[in-house]
Amino acid sequence: MRYASLLLVLTSAVVAIHGETWNPNGSGLRRVTTTGWITLTLAIIGFGLSVALVRQDAAESKSDKAALVEAKDDAALAVIETDSMKAKLDSYEAKISVYQSVIQQIRDYSEREEQTVMIQAVNLPKGKTWKAPNKLYPGSKIEVYFFEGSSLELSYGGRRQDLRRGPDNWARVFVIGDTGEELNWTLSNQSSSFKGKVAVYSTPRSRSKDWRWLEETINSVPSK
Fold first, then answer.
1. pLDDT tens, 117-128?
2. What three-state secondary structure class fits 175?
3. Helix (H), strand (E) at residue 130
């Protein structure tokens, strides 16, 4: 359309140059010659095309401006959504950190919690030895409840400890040794016939070869 408007202007100029557009001998509109009418018609059409082009340019400019405003609004909205997502992500990370801390505390507590490893009824005549079906670990606690008898001898890892019946009919002893060391153990009866229950208690950490109480204590001290 732009080229058509320019072409009409050029044609009007050519037609005007080609002949007279005004007849001084005529009267009224008759003064306008055929060439003049053609030139006028072409000029009007060119003017109309120019007006149409101006309006088209204005409409396109308005549309482009609206698109630019919309793009800016979308960009601003995207920034807001991004900030919101970042804030949510930071919140989630903070919650995860708290959950991990709680889980670690629960784990540490459970690793220190005493667990029942074994409870078994034992009948042991005088002079006999009972071989335990499980392993002992240093830090484990052995409790013996006497129905009959007065003492037993505990043997493990080359050590011997006496378990003597107390006023409450119980005998208790803690196992000595290096952390995580597996120990076979036995109970021997050198006195009168023994009847009772034998129980073993320990914690997961006392059974672990990796855990060292001294190392954990040092690591827990905050550094300056």
1. 999 999 999 999
2. coil
3. strand 129-131
